[in-house]
Write a structure and sequence with these properties.
It is built from 2 helices and 10 strands; from the N terminus they run ααββββββββββ. With 176 residues, the chain is α+β, with helices and mostly antiparallel strands. It has a single domain, classed as Calycin beta-barrel core domain (Lipocalin).
Length: 176
């Protein structure tokens, strides 16, 4: 009986040592050259931090945070000029850079981004939208990279009966 108990303890101890090693995630495989979407995504990652601009005379703060093990970027804006804190998620899907904007108007426009040949601009254009559009929706956004401490965001919001879309221009300075 002692031998059986000792054998069970040894097997259990070996399992404690071996199993965690086997449960580790495999190292990422080396991949080939980055796609244009991945290059643009990496460029957006350089904006990670906190930023400030002015929206309709009120201070606007934006936080960009790389999340989900580097697979997504969260863009969150706060301002007394907005009723809520809209967020936008940026991610690569296949060979496309995509953005989904979770709007305080109750809709979710999805956009595709393309980087300019000089790497100084990423322009997102509308693919589709889900949800209520009666209070307007964001139809595009453009990131203009100026330097490590400054970037601009230009957007176009469409409101019912308002043609052409209403443009928004924000000049951001890095605070962290």
């Amino acid at each position: 009986m002692r031998k059986l108990t000792l054998l069970i303890i040894l097997v259990a101890a070996a399992a404690v040592v071996v199993l965690p090693q086997e449960m580790k995630m495999p190292a990422p495989k080396a991949s080939g050259p980055q796609s244009d979407a991945q290059k643009a995504f990496e460029k957006l990652k350089t904006l990670a931090g906190t930023w400030q601009a002015s929206l309709m005379g009120a201070p606007m703060n934006v936080t960009l945070r790389v999340t989900s093990s580097g697979n997504a970027i969260l863009h969150e804006g706060t301002s007394s000029a907005m009723p809520d804190d809209p967020i936008t998620m940026f991610y690569v899907e296949g060979d496309r850079l995509l953005a989904t904007h979770y709007c305080d108007s109750g809709n979710r426009p999805r956009m595709e981004g393309k980087m300019s040949p000089d790497g100084k601009k990423i322009e997102f254009t509308l693919l589709d939208i889900v949800g209520n559009t009666k209070n307007g929706y964001m139809g595009s956004i453009v990131f203009n990279f100026i330097d490590a401490s400054h970037h601009n965001e230009d957007g176009a919001w469409t409101f019912p009966g308002n043609k052409p879309p209403f443009p928004i221009h924000l000049e951001f300075a890095r605070t962290k």
